[in-house]
Amino acid sequence: MSMRFDRHVVIITGASSGIGAATARAFAREQAIVVLADLRPNEALHHQLEGEGTAVLSVTVDVASSADCERLVNQVLERFGRIDVLFNNAGITRRATVEELDEAQWDHVMAVNLKSVFLLSRLVIGPMRRQGGGSIVNTASGWGLVGGDQAAVYCASKGGVVLLTKAMAIDHGPHKIRVNCICPGDTLTPMLSDEARQLGLHGDALAAAASSRPLGRAGRPEEIADAVLFLASGQSSFITGEALVVDGGGLAGSA
Q: Could you tell me what percentage of the chain is helix, strand and coil, using 3-state DSSP and rounding each to the nearest 5?
């Protein structure tokens, strides 16, 4: 079995479910030290990974809070002494047009989806630079590259993640810190079901609609996790500033 991350310290935000939980399991299989960061920690996942021999730390974090982010990074450094990978994955959605959104909704989505990437990245770059390098992977979206209906603030936030990723890659490449993002399409997570309900649809409606894609289905969280591990690993050592689309071909016909 490949052990690309043996004893590497990996922080995952939004780790309690969906893509975050799948990525935590994938890193754990490769012997990483896994830090599960979420507003609502998943105790069952923590115990599962621990029972399988993974060194794991769970931290309750509001990623939109600079104080919480600083507490998280300090706790990881105090316990493990380094940070090798940061996976900025925490995210929420609000399906609405700009006319339907209020200011508080706009601010909340932007804070969780975009501001959090800034807050945590600026805290880990110094330690990564001092240790000789590291990898940051951010969760953007296909809708960070093209627009979507009734998703104004989500598209704006994820478009910001894509360009923040590229800007950080330019700034910190000389420090041997690679910064990339993934752009998933619809993926079988609780967030996708919630998104459908926001639109007044049945919970599995968006997953069913993915049958129109070239690969004929929605993605599985484990498939997105595979892309994250690739971007975080030495197998992508000459890749930085990339927005990797993982969507079953959904954007393949886009200009």
A: 50, 15, 35
